[in-house]
């Protein structure tokens, strides 16, 4: 491609509303343009990268036995009502009515549509397993779109769905997709990690997120230094502590203490001269309209996702002042487990505590020397807190560390969540009706591109891994008005094209410095600079964007040199 013919509007200024580096560079490099909040147009350079990701995905999906389909983006409400998600999904689901006053939505995902398709076509175990995938536009009405294409409203996604006759088959389908995802992100040239994750609104019993390591990542990733355990912060497990040998003989007398207008852990700690580790917080939650008390050590934080999953609640939120007053008899800040009349569960951090401080369920009072079993009862102890750096690994004797990451893919073991609700059944060998076992597997296409940039850039611009680069080589004649320089550049350009190399010829009548800055900004991996001084000696300069290395190559051998570097780089990611 000749640069002069390209629609490639690069810019020097950092956009004022672009929060993260990937958004800034995608705009400056002429890859995207914002149409409205959370909705972007992809320009030619950006769309070439999108297609590179899509091609890698297609190759690995096909290799794993998945078959490509294309499903409607507009979905009838009846299917979502059938699965139970029409009201549960929330405001991110963009609903609308057609001219006949029928309800529809723009698909944020396609579990309902694919389940309807398969239940109508598959009747017997002989037709299973099946794995169908698509690469298609989705829409989620994000309350606060941000970070450019990483969290937008309209986006491209690869979503695949597996259907199996039994759990054993479903496990095999999950493993095939897990392997395929590892292959995809490795081939994209990304530093990534699969982590255990919560299934969220998609549902299901088990899932992994694929996270690209980046300091700018939205998500905290918990991993062990010694074993392969890794999880996102929502899912990260806490090992249950060993029971201590404390007995009733160690219990001190329960004492009520007046604490006027002392509510927070910090205030209680200072007023009673005790450490936060000696205090038990009692948090009142509204779980599907019913109050529930959660106990946790004063210096720890409750993981609401764990609480929601433990209770099996569809909706969970902190209780309002009215519910707290009704449940405890006191205003917010004085709740405790002693005498409370609601369900009480506790985090493992409380299990070995004795003689602790807690609220008295009475305004301006706290209790000292509280002990579970004597003064209050707990229904059960569970892992309900947020993991912290330095926690012991739940799988081995290692120590937990944190890094930041960007979610680019998610695989779910759905089980029968949708197939049971929507009656996706088949006849087994004995002619008995059975429910299909499902899996769901998604990759955010634009998120993958943005995450790649967040991981690969410098002060000059993007540094594309070779598999995702929109073009592999840019040939830069220093001065297009010098016939010898331009002829050599044209010859090299033509030879690279003939060898199937994706190449740009920067034939603009611009200063060399401008051309070099643009080449660095858009991140082309290899730059061949044709200048009169080197050309007179039979050489051209080859610049490697990733390392900054420059080398002189013989003009006649430059194509071979480029191909060797390409083969070496691609071998690193493809094996």
Question: Can you tell me about this structure?
Answer:
The protein is α+β, with helices and mostly antiparallel strands. The protein has 3 domains: 284 residues, 2-Layer Sandwich (BirA Bifunctional Protein, domain 2), CATH 3.30.930; 135 residues, YbaK protein, CATH 3.90.960.10; 104 residues, 3-Layer(aba) Sandwich (Rossmann fold). It has 16 helices and 31 strands. Strands 3, 7, 8, 9, 10, 11, 12, 21 and 24 form a 9-stranded mixed sheet that branches. The protein has a 5-stranded mixed sheet with strand order 16-14-15-17-20.
Gap from first CA to last CA: 29 Å
Mean pLDDT across every amino acid position = 94
Total DSSP helices: 16
The overall number of domains is: 3
In the CATH hierarchy, the architecture of the largest domain is 2-Layer Sandwich
Describe the secondary structure blueprint for this structure.
Elements: H1 21-28, E1 32-36, E2 39-42, H2 44-63, E3 67-68, E4 74-76, H3 77-83, H4 85-88, E5 95-97, E6 103-106, H5 111-121, E7 130-139, E8 154-164, H6 167-187, E9 192-196, E10 206-213, E11 219-224, E12 230-232, E13 255-258, H7 265-272, E14 280-287, E15 290-297, H8 304-311, E16 316-318, H9 321-328, E17 343-347, H10 348-351, E18 356-359, E19 365-370, E20 380-382, E21 400-415, H11 417-421, E22 425-427, E23 433-435, E24 437-444, H12 445-455, E25 457-458, E26 461-462, E27 473-477, H13 483-498, E28 503-505, H14 512-522, E29 526-530, H15 532-536, E30 539-544, E31 550-554, H16 558-574
Parallel strand pairs: 3-7, 15-17, 17-20, 27-28, 27-29
Antiparallel strand pairs: 1-2, 4-6, 5-6, 7-8, 8-24, 9-10, 10-21, 11-12, 11-21, 13-19, 14-15, 14-16, 18-19, 21-24, 22-23, 25-26, 29-30, 30-31
């Amino acid at each position: 491609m000749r640069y002069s013919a390209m629609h490639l509007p690069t810019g020097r200024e950092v956009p004022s509303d672009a929060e993260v580096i990937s958004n800034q560079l995608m705009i400056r490099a002429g890859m995207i343009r914002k149409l409205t909040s959370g909705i972007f147009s992809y320009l030619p350079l950006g769309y070439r990268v999108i297609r590179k990701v899509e091609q890698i995905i297609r190759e690995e999906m096909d290799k794993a036995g998945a078959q490509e389909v294309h499903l409607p983006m507009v979905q009838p409400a009846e299917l979502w009502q059938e699965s139970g998600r029409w009201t549960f999904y929330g405001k991110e689901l963009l609903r609308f009515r057609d001219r006949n006053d029928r309800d529809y939505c723009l698909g944020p995902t396609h579990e309902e549509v694919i389940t309807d398709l398969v239940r109508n076509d598959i009747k017997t175990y002989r037709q299973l397993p099946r794995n169908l995938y698509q690469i298609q536009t989705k829409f989620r009405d994000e309350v606060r779109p941000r970070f450019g294409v990483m969290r937008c409203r309209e986006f491209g996604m690869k979503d695949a769905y597996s259907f199996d006759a039994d759990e054993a088959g479903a496990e095999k389908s999950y493993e095939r997709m897990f392997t395929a995802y590892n292959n995809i992100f490795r081939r994209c040239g990304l530093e990534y990690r699969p982590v255990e994750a919560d299934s969220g609104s998609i549902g299901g019993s088990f899932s992994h997120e694929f996270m690209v390591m980046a300091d700018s990542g939205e998500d905290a990733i918990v991993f062990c230094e010694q074993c392969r355990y890794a999880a996102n912060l929502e899912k990260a497990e806490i090992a249950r502590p060993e029971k201590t040998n404390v007995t009733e003989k160690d219990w001190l007398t329960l004492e009520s203490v007046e604490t006027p207008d002392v509510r927070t852990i910090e205030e209680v700690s200072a007023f009673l001269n005790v450490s936060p580790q000696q205090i038990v917080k009692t948090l009142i939650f509204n779980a599907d309209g019913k109050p529930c008390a959660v106990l946790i050590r004063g210096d720890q934080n409750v993981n609401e996702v764990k609480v929601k999953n433990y209770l099996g609640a569809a909706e969970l939120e902190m209780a309002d002042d009215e519910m707290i007053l009704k449940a405890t008899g006191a205003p917010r800040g004085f709740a405790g487990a002693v005498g409370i009349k609601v369900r009480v569960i506790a985090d493992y951090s409380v299990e070995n505590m004795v003689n602790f401080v807690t609220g008295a369920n009475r305004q301006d009072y706290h209790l000292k020397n509280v002990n579970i079993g004597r003064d209050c009862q707990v229904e059960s102890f569970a892992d309900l807190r947020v993991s912290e750096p330095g926690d012991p690994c739940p799988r081995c004797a290692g120590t937990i560390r944190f890094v930041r990451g960007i979610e680019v893919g998610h695989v779910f073991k759905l089980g029968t969540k949708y197939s049971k609700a929507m009656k996706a059944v088949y006849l087994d060998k004995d002619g008995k009706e059975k429910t299909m076992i499902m899996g769901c597997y998604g990759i955010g296409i634009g998120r993958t591109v943005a995450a790649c940039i967040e991981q690969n850039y410098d002060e000059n611009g993007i540094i594309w891994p070779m598999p995702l680069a929109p073009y592999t080589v840019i040939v830069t004649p220093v001065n297009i008005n010098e016939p010898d320089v331009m002829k050599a550049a044209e010859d090299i350009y033509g030879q690279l094209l003939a060898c199937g190399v994706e190449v740009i010829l920067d034939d603009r009548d611009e200063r060399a410095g401008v051309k070099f800055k643009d080449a660095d900004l858009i991140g082309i991996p290899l730059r061949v600079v044709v200048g009169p001084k080197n050309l007179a000696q039979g050489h051209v300069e080859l610049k490697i964007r990733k390392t900054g290395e420059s080398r002189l190559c013989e003009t006649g051998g430059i194509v071979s040199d480029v191909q060797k570097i390409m083969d070496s780089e691609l071998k690193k990611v493809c094996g």
